[in-house]
Amino acid sequence: MYIQYIAMQDNTNAILDPQEWENKLLCYIGMLETMAVFDDWRLVLGSLLQPIPFPNDAIAHELFTSKMKNVIRYIAGDTHCDVHSTILGIREGKEGWFHLYVPGNIGCDDEGELWGLMLKTLLNCCCRRRKFLSELNKMMGPIMLLALRENEAAMEALCAMLELDVVESNDVKMQMVTTLQSTSTGKRMYAELCERQIALRELQQKGGPKKLTLPSKSTDTDLSKMLSSGSFGNLECLSLAFTNVTSACANDLIKLPSLRYLNLWSTQFGDVGVQMISEHLHKLQVLNLCETPVTDKGLVCLSW
């Protein structure tokens, strides 16, 4: 799938005319864009493009990276994880389209608009979130730049990195906080983060029962009210079996630092919830997911 570049020769050893090469390039990318329009073609197309199968001369060419943006935009905006994850490198250490279009890199000619879309999609993805946020440390400059320009995905990334504590340097953390407080939206998002952290510290205070079972048909709201009624820092065993809780209750579950046993049998707890508890409940030993909508995508999170 290599594109012939101006400096490359064809089979007759004649150098391609610049206009002829441009026409061929536009035709080629036009075909890729046509394929990207169709939902059922994107997975195959994304998989083919994931290793960026083009020579360095093409990737360094402004026309090529500019015209490829529409193709990558379709792939990056797809809601299916298998599709939009193809904008990442095919293996660790191998950069992907997400890296090519980062602000300041050779492919970015739109002040980060396309990269912001990629970032938003990946942040909302239900898999590899903590690992992904850790890798964003390498892109801290572009993220803070977009946050200053009031890009909400960039601000969300900064808050998530602070909340999951994936940044080691205190100086960098202070720069992140300063960046967030530089805009009204950033201030609001940071204030919400601080409120969550305060609530987390209060809930994690030692005390309370070691075992708790909610009545059947209890909801996310019921669980939240229960956990806000006292200290549950000692809670080790929680049964939510046959209740109506969903993944939304994960926001409360991750505040239970001592939890070792969690029974979610016959609930509506799904992949997003599993992803959250896998990142926070490090002492969890037993997790019952019988008769839940959890799929292979969610189970993968438990293997990290």
UniProtKB/TrEMBL annotation:
InterPro entries, per the entry: CMIP (IPR052813), Leu-rich_rpt (IPR001611), LRR_dom_sf (IPR032675)
A Pfam family per the record: LRR_6
Top-rank taxon: Eukaryota
Protein name per the record: C-Maf-inducing protein
